[in-house]
Amino acid sequence: MLGDDDTTARRLRLLKAEFTQHQQRGPDPTGRTATRAEAPAPIDLGVLDYMRAAVTEVEQHTRAADWSRPAGPVPDDASRVYEWAREHTAHLGKQHQQAREALIYRQGLEHAIAAGDTTVIRKHPCPQCGCYGLYWRPETGKAGCVNHYCTDDDGVSHSWTLAHLAQQHIASKSALSARAT
Ligand SMILES: [Zn+2]
Q: Domain segments of the chain: what residues?
């Protein structure tokens, strides 16, 4: 079983809740809280765009996987798109299953980071030196290695995209489960 339970879906729900709460927090300085409180909390538009982009990516990946079986509309609840993707690609080969899980796992990392939790990076060994010293570098959008000896030919510290870490994570998980059976 390659599925990473529903961690990615849970993180997406958390992210949405987080940004909805930010909007609600604090009294209205103008004192017009009474009328405002009745309206549903507006969600940060940037987060809405972010979530829409995440869903679109999964949707396109799923539809492109098998044109012979139209998958139908994506669920209204964004966090259920992962379930939807797995359902519609369960009949495909191992390679596709892995690619799909790597995409879902990568989005899980992105959701956590978008919600401010960059510690998710630390659970991954550096693909080059194997140490657990990766840290998030927001300026590059990549994970950097803390090991001073882990550099390229120009002496620049190795850094990794989330997609790379996700692929490595899913591949090692798949190798483990293959060995266990
Ligand atoms: Zn390293």
A: 1-116, 118-181
